[in-house]
Design a protein that fits this description.
Blueprint: H1 3-13, H2 22-31, E1 39-42, E2 48-52, E3 57-64, E4 75-77, E5 80-82, H3 90-100, E6 109-116, H4 124-129, E7 137-141, E8 148-153, E9 155-165, H5 175-194, E10 206-215, E11 220-230, H6 236-249, E12 253-260, E13 263-264, H7 270-281, E14 287-291, H8 296-299, E15 307-310, E16 324-326, H9 327-347
Helix pairs in contact: 1-3, 3-9, 5-6, 7-9
Length: about 350
């Protein structure tokens, strides 16, 4: 078994749901010096930060070490690794770690690896680290398939609907629980009516209930969390104002708990271009992807540098009981990244 596969298998075997990444971060940090990383630390957000080189120009490779809960048990079975995080996104993270630790550094360059915490929850690792770096180029570790290059993600707006009263009989006053459910229904109906299924997913909105809580007896109260995905060209603020009108109409309080705009980059920017060239060099046909989810990719837009998202794995298996990664594909992604990273460093424009 190769060192790259051992690293991935061991990391997937350590559960790391958002907020409980400590054991996985400790293991990952301890493994990085042996594969070429010169400096390794665990920062205040619990993220693992590693570096090579001392050049002025920085290439950031940012993945995430947390996962959603659950998933299939860890199992290494011939060419397949089963387990939560194998696809989303420990496979991409380990691909970054292995290739970033061994690729030759171009003159005046350094490479930084970030294994961010909390991407599946509050993105605390990315939010903590983005102000600390000013990269000339970056890659975000998310599953695209070894032959895929992701250039965009929808935005995200998370809303908290709430209402309460001192109590009343349901026969005369349907109360806050009903008001919150109806408001949520109004919002989801608006999104559904505005949708055009003929558009690509990056240009379509969607909405889902993330959680509900209610009490009907005595002091009546209700809460509902909505997760709304914002299409390319729109902003979370625009959608919040629309949803605010619907909440006010039913006397429901509305709070924005998280918001990040959609972000799409030029498919010919140096990072995406280098990945496409490297994919072709390895006898694969590159696919350009713009996804319906949201990732730390959106937050990394603040760096305003050439970027793309890349990593092995089928994103349809994200968060499912069938999550698994082809190790052949994982090894293909190592070859692609080994060819792409030097190209990125050679072709990223100077900033300022």
């Amino acid at each position: 078994m190769s060192q790259a596969i051992k690293l991935l298998s061991k990391l997937v075997a350590i559960p790391s749901p958002s907020g409980q990444e400590e054991a996985a971060s400790r293991f990952f940090a301890s493994a990085l010096p042996a594969i070429g990383w010169e400096r390794v630390e665990i920062d205040e957000s619990g993220s693992v930060i590693a570096g090579r080189g001392t050049g002025e120009r920085e290439l950031v490779l940012m993945g995430h070490i947390d996962t959603v809960p659950g998933g299939p048990p860890h199992l290494l079975e011939r060419d397949v690794l089963w387990g939560r995080g194998s696809v989303d996104a420990k496979g991409p993270l380990c691909a970054f770690a292995v290739t970033g630790g061994r690729v030759p550094l171009e003159p005046n360059w350094r490479i930084t690896l970030i294994a961010a915490t909390g991407e599946e929850a509050d993105s605390r690792g990315a939010l903590f680290n983005i102000p600390k770096h000013h990269p000339a180029a970056c890659l975000i570790g998310e599953p695209s398939g070894a032959d895929g290059v992701t250039i965009g993600y929808r935005g995200c707006l998370r809303l908290l609907l709430s209402a309460e009263d001192g109590g009343a009989h349901r026969s005369g006053d349907s109360g806050p629980l009903t008001a919150v459910v109806r408001t949520g229904s109004d919002m989801l109906a608006f999104i559904e009516e505005a949708d055009d299924p003929n558009l690509p997913i990056i240009r379509r909105a969607s909405g889902a209930v993330a959680s509900m809580l209610g009490q009907e007896n005595g002091h009546r109260r209700a809460k509902m969390e909505l997760d709304i995905r914002i299409p390319e060209g729109d902003t979370p603020h625009e959608w919040f104002l629309i949803m605010k009108e619907k909440a006010v109409a039913r006397n429901v309080e509305l709070k924005m708990t998280f918001a990040t705009p959609p972000h799409v980059v030029d498919k010919n920017n140096p990072a995406a271009w280098a990945l496409r060239l490297a994919i072709r060099k390895n006898a694969l046909s590159p696919r350009i992807l713009a996804k319906g989810g949201t990732a730390d990719f959106n937050l990394a837009a603040a760096w305003d540098c050439p970027m793309a998202a890349y990593g092995p794995g089928d994103s349809k298996l994200d968060h499912t009981a069938e999550e698994r990664l082809s190790l052949s594909e994982y090894q293909d992604s190592l070859k692609v990244l080994s060819d792409a990273l030097p190209l990125i460093m050679q072709n990223a424009p100077r900033q300022g």
